[in-house]
From TrEMBL:
Binding of Ca(2+) 2, residues: 199, 248, 256
Residues spanning the signal sequence: 1-23
Enzyme Commission identifier(s): 1.11.1.7
Keyword Transferase: no
Protein name: Peroxidase
BP term (GO), one: defense response to fungus
PROSITE patterns: PEROXIDASE_1, PEROXIDASE_2, PEROXIDASE_4, PROKAR_LIPOPROTEIN
Residues engaged in binding substrate: 168
Cofactor entry: Ca(2+); heme b
The organism's place on the tree of life at top rank: Eukaryota
Length: 328
């Protein structure tokens, strides 16, 4: 199993290089048939993208929180056993029940898209593909860039909370974050670019309150002194840890590069975000991405296609789920 996974990762990797040239699959080397590709469903389910987009749009209109929710869901799926929709399985001890996944949002939107797809083209579209498409649509709905998403993923048959330990956490150093991204084949630059997903969405006070009040009541000195009182007002000491704060203050519902600008001013919310500015290993990357000539959007699209091909199941391994929340 371990060996199989790593060889998949390697194969996926090569195809990613091909995909990443223009953010779309172009010619593949001969005999290179595995991996996702554009138009995978063009004859078997031609309306797949419209159906997914409509479901995500309806969910977003009802509750805009589902856009960041779904974007984060793809990240948490791909880092744990690859992009195989293992995050979507409900039940005791599944990935979904692991601590870092408890605040994910948008499961019902994926389920809804799947129901409609089963009516239109039964047994054809994988939940892993629905999630990858829905994450792209979530970026578009928050006024970010659009890009083409190769499809052809298959759904996994394993989902265990104990596998979620490799997810990056808000207290991770840059070195640990790098280690966790390298382990799935992503570079330091891709780490910083993908962390730019925090340009939308929120975090619970409990994920960063340690920065506001240490054992002697002091605060993390890297927090902008004018921003600190705002954070302390929203998240008072011993207050409600579930109160949510924008990760990109002042621009938390718009997908743009202001997250990086805020980091440079000590206005990051998570410690794992703010240290991307204070650590010399990542600061120059933040500096480039925050500039007016930032290539953030295009790089984000490419990095998303790379992240969404981690550890794919290929050929006949895995399955096409009938319902996204349950293994067949
Ligand atoms: C680099 C390591 C990362 C760490 C340590 C990290 C950590 C976190 C934490 C602690 C939260 C707040 C969760 C909560 O309180 O509910 C969060 C939210 C979020 N993360 Fe990350 N994250 C990382 C990378 C990423 C990546 C790569 C993506 C997607 C490409 C992503 C997308 C999001 C989004 C969209 C939210 C907002 C969720 C919402 O509003 O419901 N994160 N992240
Ligand atoms: C708490 O924060 C203050 C202010 O940044 C700092 O001077 C102090 O060393 C910190 N104490 C501990 C125990 O971390
Ligand atoms: C974020 O920005 C808004 C203004 O858009 C402000 O009212 C709020 O207090 C700021 N701070 C936090 C921690 O959200
Ligand atoms: C707290 C703060 O200064 N937030 C800023 C983050 O960046 C955006 C865009 O530059 C500003 O609008 C916010 O005010």
């Amino acid at each position: 199993m371990g060996l199989f996974r790593s060889s998949c990762l390697f194969i996926t990797f090569l195809s990613c290089l091909v995909i990443s040239v223009h953010g779309q699959a172009t010619a593949r080397p001969p005999g290179f048939g595995v991996g996702p590709r554009l138009g995978f469903y063009s004859t078997t389910c031609p309306n797949v993208e419209t159906i997914v987009r409509n479901a995500v749009t309806a969910g977003f209109n009802a509750n805009p929180r589902i856009a960041p929710g779904i974007l984060r869901m793809l990240f948490h799926d791909c880092f744990v056993l690859g992009c195989d929709a293992s995050i979507l399985i409900s039940g005791t001890n599944t990935e979904r029940t692991a601590g870092p996944n408890l605040n994910l949002r948008g499961f019902e939107v994926i389920d809804n898209a799947k129901t409609q797809l089963e009516a239109a083209c039964p047994g054809v579209v994988s939940c892993a593909d629905i999630l990858a498409l829905a994450a792209r649509d979530s970026v578009v709905l928050t006024r970010g860039i659009s890009w083409q998403v190769p499809t052809g993923r298959r759904d996994g048959r394993v989902s265990l909370a104990s596998n979620a330990n490799n997810l990056p956490g808000p207290g991770d150093s840059v070195a640990i974050q790098q280690q966790k991204f390298t382990a799935v084949g992503l570079s330091t630059r891709e780490l910083v670019v993908l962390a730019g997903a925090h340009t939308i969405g929120t975090a619970g006070c409990g994920t960063f309150s340690n920065r506001l009040f240490n054992s002697t009541g002091g605060a993390d000195p890297t927090i902008d002194p004018t921003f600190l009182p705002q954070l302390r007002t929203q998240c008072p000491q011993n207050g409600d840890a579930s109160v949510r704060v924008d990760l990109d203050n002042g621009s938390g519902t718009t997908f743009d590069n202001s997250y990086f600008i805020n980091l440079s001013r000590g206005r990051g919310v998570l410690q794992s975000d703010q240290i991307l500015w204070t650590d010399p290993a990542t600061r120059p990357i933040v500096q480039q991405l925050m500039s007016p000539r930032s290539t953030f959007n295009a790089e984000f699209a490419r990095a998303m296609n790379r992240m969404s091909t981690i550890g794919l199941l290929t050929g006949t391994s895995g399955e096409i789920r009938r319902v996204c929340s349950a293994i067949n």
